[in-house]
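Query structure, 271 C-alpha cells:
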C-alpha cells in the first residue's frame, strides 16, 4: 500500500487533495484518520489528511503499514517564485527548526524523487506552466525518523500559487505517478551546490542517474562521517555512487568528504 499524505493546515496540500478526489477517482472508504476521511484508489493507494503540519507527521506508521508515504505539500520561498518541487527529508545539522530531529535523515527513495521530477517537468510543458520552476531540492526538514521511505512533492511558493489549479494538477499527477512507479535497485547520493540542486536536476532529467539524499554546500562545513553514512544507509535503493558538484564545493569540504566516500566503497562521479 502506498499512502498519499495531505494536511488540513496546508493550503496547497488541500488544493492538491481536492484535485485528487474530484478528478482521479478516489472513493471514500468510510474510515477516518485524525477526524478526516480516508480515500482509496483501487486496492493499492490511500489518500489521507492529517491534522498536523506535514513536517511533523513522523507518527504515520503507527497507523498505516505503508510501502512509501508521498507527501503533497506547499513550498514556501521568500522570492514567491512559482515552483513545482520534489525532495527527500532530513536535517544535516544540530537544528531541527522545521520538523524531525537534529542530525537525522528519513529513508529516501531516489527512484520516486526522479519519477516526480520527470513528471513535474512533463506536466509543466503540457499545462503551459512556463512561469513555474521545476526542481529537486536538497535534503531538508522533517519527518526524519520513520522506517518507511517517503518523498515530498510540493507546490510553491506563496499563497497565490498554493491555490493555483493547474499547478496543483501537476503535483497531483506527479504524486500519482509515484504511487504507481516501481522502486529502483541502485542509486546515488549528492554533495555540493545550491539548495535547488541545479547540476543534479540535469543528470536526473537526462536519466543518467537517480539521486536520493543530497547535502548542499552550506551543509558540508559541518557534515560528519556519521551523517554521510546515514545518507547511504537511509535509502530504499542500494547506494553505489556519490555525485560531487565540484565547483559547488571547496577544497576543504572535498578533503573532508571524499575519504569517507572511499571508505564506504562508493564510486565517485565529478559533475
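Result returned for the query:
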Amino acid at each position: 500500500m502506498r499512502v498519499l499524505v495531505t494536511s488540513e493546515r496546508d493550503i496547497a496540500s488541500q488544493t492538491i487533495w481536492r484535485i485528487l478526489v474530484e478528478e482521479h477517482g478516489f472513493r471514500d472508504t468510510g474510515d477516518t484518520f485524525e477526524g478526516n476521511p480516508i480515500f482509496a484508489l483501487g486496492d493499492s493507494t490511500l489518500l489521507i489528511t492529517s491534522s498536523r503540519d506535514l513536517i511533523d507527521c513522523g507518527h504515520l506508521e503507527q497507523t498505516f503499514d505503508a510501502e512509501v508515504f508521498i507527501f503533497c505539500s506547499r513550498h514556501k520561498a521568500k522570492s514567491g517564485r512559482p515552483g513545482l518541487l520534489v525532495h527527500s527529508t532530513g536535517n544535516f545539522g544540530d537544528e531541527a527548526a522545521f520538523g524531525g530531529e537534529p542530525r537525522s535523515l528519513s529513508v529516501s527513495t531516489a527512484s520516486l524523487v526522479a519519477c516526480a521530477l520527470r513528471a513535474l517537468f512533463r506536466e509543466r510543458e503540457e499545462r503551459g506552466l512556463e512561469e513555474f520552476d521545476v526542481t529537486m531540492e536538497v535534503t531538508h526538514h522533517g519527518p526524519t525518523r520513520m522506517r518507511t521511505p517517503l518523498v515530498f512533492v510540493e507546490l510553491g511558493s506563496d499563497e497565490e500559487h498554493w491555490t493555483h489549479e493547474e499547478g496543483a494538477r501537476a503535483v497531483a499527477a506527479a504524486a500519482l505517478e509515484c504511487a504507481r512507479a516501481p522502486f529502483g535497485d541502485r542509486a546515488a547520493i549528492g554533495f555540493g551546490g545550491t539548495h535547488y540542486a541545479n547540476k543534479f536536476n540535469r543528470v536526473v532529467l537526462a536519466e543518467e542517474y537517480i539521486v536520493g539524499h543530497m547535502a548542499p554546500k552550506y551543509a558540508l562545513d559541518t557534515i560528519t562521517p556519521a551523517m554521510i553514512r546515514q545518507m547511504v544507509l537511509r535509502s530504499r535503493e542500494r547506494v553505489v555512487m556519490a555525485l560531487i558538484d565540484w565547483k559547488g564545493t571547496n577544497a576543504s569540504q572535498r578533503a573532508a568528504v571524499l575519504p569517507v566516500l572511499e571508505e564506504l566503497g562508493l564510486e565517485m562521479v565529478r559533475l
